[in-house]
């Protein structure tokens, strides 16, 4: 049995590391998707739900991470 190294993921401290959020409607054949927005902004799910009655969404958070070996190398 071989062992695999463990690499912790750490948020990148640079300006490009803003967390973004996207969402898509999961109601039947609805094709609504939000544009990527900062995590602090609304994704538009509430407005889409109010307009259509759809209530189920897949929401994805994305950010840049650095992979480092143990010990921070």
Question: Main attributes?
Answer:
alpha+beta; 5 strands; 1 helix; 27% strand; 3-stranded antiparallel sheet; 73 residues
Helix and strand content put the structural class at alpha+beta
Order of helices and strands: EEEHEE
- Kindly state the percentage of residues in helix: 10-25%
Radius of gyration: 18 Å
N- and C-termini, Cα separation: 26 Å
Number of helices: 1
Biggest pleated sheet = 3 strands, antiparallel
Overall, the morphology is elongated
Query: How much strand content do the residues show?
Result: 25-35%
Strand runs, count? 5
Strand arrangement within the widest β-sheet reads 3-2-4
Which stretches are poorly predicted, pLDDT < 50 over at least 5 residues? none
Describe the structure in your own words.
With 73 residues, the protein is of the alpha+beta class. The chain has one helix and five strands, in the order E-E-E-H-E-E. Strands 3-2-4 form a three-stranded antiparallel beta sheet, with no helix packed on it. Strands 1-5 form a two-stranded antiparallel ribbon.
In short:
The chain is an alpha+beta fold and 73 residues long. It has one helix spanning 45-52, and strands at 9-11, 20-25, 37-38, 57-62, 65-67.
Topology:
Elements: E1 9-11, E2 20-25, E3 37-38, H1 45-52, E4 57-62, E5 65-67
Antiparallel strand pairs: 1-5, 2-3, 2-4
């Amino acid at each position: 049995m071989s062992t695999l190294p463990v690499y912790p993921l750490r948020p990148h401290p640079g300006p490009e590391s803003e967390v973004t959020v996207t969402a898509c409607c999961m109601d039947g054949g609805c094709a609504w998707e939000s544009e990527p927005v900062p995590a602090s902004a609304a994704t538009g799910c509430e407005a889409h739900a109010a307009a259509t009655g759809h209530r189920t969404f897949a929401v994805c958070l994305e950010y840049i991470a650095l992979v480092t070996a143990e010990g921070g190398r």
